[in-house]
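G., the chain you wanted modeled:
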Amino acid sequence: MSNFAIEHGIPVMPGKRISRYPVRDLLPHQSFFIPEDQFTDSGIEGAIGTCRSQASTHGFKIATRKVDGGVRVWRTA
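Predicted structure as tokens:
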């Protein structure tokens, strides 16, 4: 037997996704800069991958470039 009660009829609460980078807020031709000190343990490639994944989820394309001190991310379409 389990100590957990099984319940019925409780709706699923909507999830709240917290995005580290403001990719979904970009309009075409806008950009933002990610300074090196803001990268997670996965580093620059992890930051770029996270941004690309968010853009894909929201149905648009981005361009990323390594620049002095970090990465710049542009929304292209």
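Strands lie at 31-35, 62-67, 70-75.

Shout if anything looks off.
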